[in-house]
Amino acid sequence: xxxxxxxxxxxxxxxxxxxxxxxxxxxxxxxxxxxxxxxxxxxxxxxxxxxxxxxxxxxxxxxxxxxxxxxxxxxxxxxxxxxxxxxxxxxxxxxxxxxxxxxxxxxxxxxxxxxxxxxxxxxxxxxxxxxxxxxxxxxxxxxxxxxxxxxxxxxxxxxxxxxxxxxxxxxxxxxxxxxxxxxxxxxxxxxxxxxxxxxxxxxxxxxxxxxxxxxxxxxxxxxxxxxxxxxxxxxxxxxxxxxxxxxxxxxxxxxxxxxxxxx
Amino acid sequence: xxxxxxxxxxxxxxxxxxxxxxxxxxxxxxxxxxxxxxxxxxxxxxxxxxxxxxxxxxxxxxxxxxxxxxxxxxxxxxxxxxxxxxxxxxxxxxxxxxxxxxxxxxxxxxxxxxxxxxxxxxxxxxxxxxxxxxxxxxxxxxxxxxxxxxxxxxxxxxxxxxxxxxxxxxxxxxxxxxxxxxxxxxxxxxxxxxxxxxxxxxxxxxxxxxxxxxxxxxxxxxxxxxxxxxxxxxxxxxxxxxxxxxxxxxxxxxxxxxxxxxxxxxxxxxxxxxxxxxxxxxxxxxxxxxxxxxxxxxxxxxxxxxxxxxxxxxxxxxxxxxxxxxxxxxxxxxxxxxxxxxxxxxxxxxxxxxxxxxxxxxxxxxxxxxxxxxxxxxxxxxxxxxxxx
Lengths: 263, 389
What we know:
The complex is a heterodimer of chains A (263) and B (389).
Chain A: E1 2-6, E2 9-11, E3 17-18, E4 25-26, E5 32-34, H1 36-52, E6 55-61, H2 67-74, E7 80-84, H3 94-107, E8 113-117, H4 128-136, E9 140-150, E10 154-160, E11 165-171, E12 174-178, H5 190-198, E13 203-204, H6 244-257
Parallel strand pairs in A: 1-6, 1-8, 6-7, 7-13, 8-12, 9-12
Antiparallel strand pairs in A: 2-5, 3-4, 9-10, 10-11
Chain B: H1 7-24, H2 28-34, H3 39-47, H4 66-79, H5 81-100, H6 103-114, E1 120-123, E2 139-143, E3 146-157, E4 164-170, E5 180-186, E6 192-197, E7 208-219, E8 223-224, H7 230-266, E9 268-269, E10 272-273, H8 278-306, H9 313-343, H10 349-359, H11 366-383
Parallel strand pairs in B: 1-4
Antiparallel strand pairs in B: 2-3, 3-7, 4-5, 5-8, 6-7, 9-10
Helix pairs in contact in B: 1-4, 4-5, 4-7, 5-6, 5-7, 7-8, 7-9, 7-10, 8-9, 9-10, 9-11
């Protein structure tokens, strides 16, 4: 089994600011971390490998310093890491990002399973996982809490829903995004960490992926951030206190005063 | 302070600190309250390769020494010395094999200890043999290709949980101190069982239990070194393990200091944070100074031992004595800084103060450490011909 886990380096959410002019995140001077949801994806990938054999490759697109994020995953026991880095990739939306990742995955040789975190804490779109599946033309599922390999290259996944969970089955290769219920991320190991320090991490740019500059980065993006704002506060609220009956009476009175039809 | 550690040593600190903060700290109060053995944490440490930091690479370790062991212990101890004692006690059980074991014994036992697959323990203490190891009553009698062990060991850390025990027993009572020998006993050996689990003042997550030997039959090749070497093996083991107790104390002191300073900056009385009052500031200043001095002594001693030096007993005793006395003072004062809150179980310093006391007692009481230092001074100065007057 060859499992690819896609991760993202994000600014530490505790310290982010938004540039009022450009409406984008100010990254200077803010510590970068691995997107917390992606640790569950890494854990899912490692467990899948430990259970069914094979190897795990971590993949990320980002500036050169995103290499650090990849090394952190190597310290957990990830086997290989690949960095997609190119000035042309800058400003990519989820379409351009998932296209770039998809082209890279095609270059990695046979891949059986692609795992992503459920979303990134900076953009919060949850679109890159499904986008990857679309670009690769493979089946996918989201919010998985359990993954099981069946015979004949079938994957069974339990996906968390608001009401409980669903069991879905699909043919490999497939894409899944996972949630924290998949299992606590493991701690780094000393031997892995020492190896990770020296491990060579290939860097691929647009040319290596046979992508035109118009297809990637800001140029290849369909969405652009025009404005970032806090949603306006909701209208006045009034707390109703007292015993339950008392509260019900007050509420009824207020609704009648507001001329709610039927009351 | 920067102690100019190597890249590998920094990695050991980082990983141990990450485990301490993310895995140990959230559960320490519950482990203490439930007096539950920290198996989950031991598995995490094993997966992170921490059990092998001080063992040679040929036995599955990472090739470090006493300093590497101390760095891991200190970081773990910063969160909970009950958990850190459990970790360190496995090393204590491994040291006699590492220092005096045969090649076969090393090959058989060290790799499983290094991987954390099995825990080890060291058993010397008995009801009548504490500071005076000469009072050991447990006997080992040679019978052909076997030894028969009889007796009871008391207060054995990791007792019942460990798989590999290094046990000191008397092989020839007539020879006095030269009549003791060390043996490796495995959990599951016939005639070997466990007695009661002790209820303690502190480090409640750590298992402390009796070992019962009732015609316990072990193969003769479990003898460590030669017959009569038991006390030498014990003393040499403690010489390299005692800085580890110092490291537990440094970690504990740092953990208590962290909380005391953070609290003093936030707690407002008379309209000001209490850290602005000199009475509190001076307490914190002493706590920080003594903790740093203790750390420097532990690191220096560990490095000296790792250099291959022979005259290590005095420094090893110092590296246990001073930091553990400091830890008792620092944790007591941390409770004082937190006042009534510090005395409550809702805050971690109450446990830290209870935990600290054992450091002055186990692996040789601090009175015994002073004896060792005093005797070494007497010997040392006896060799010097010049006068200092």
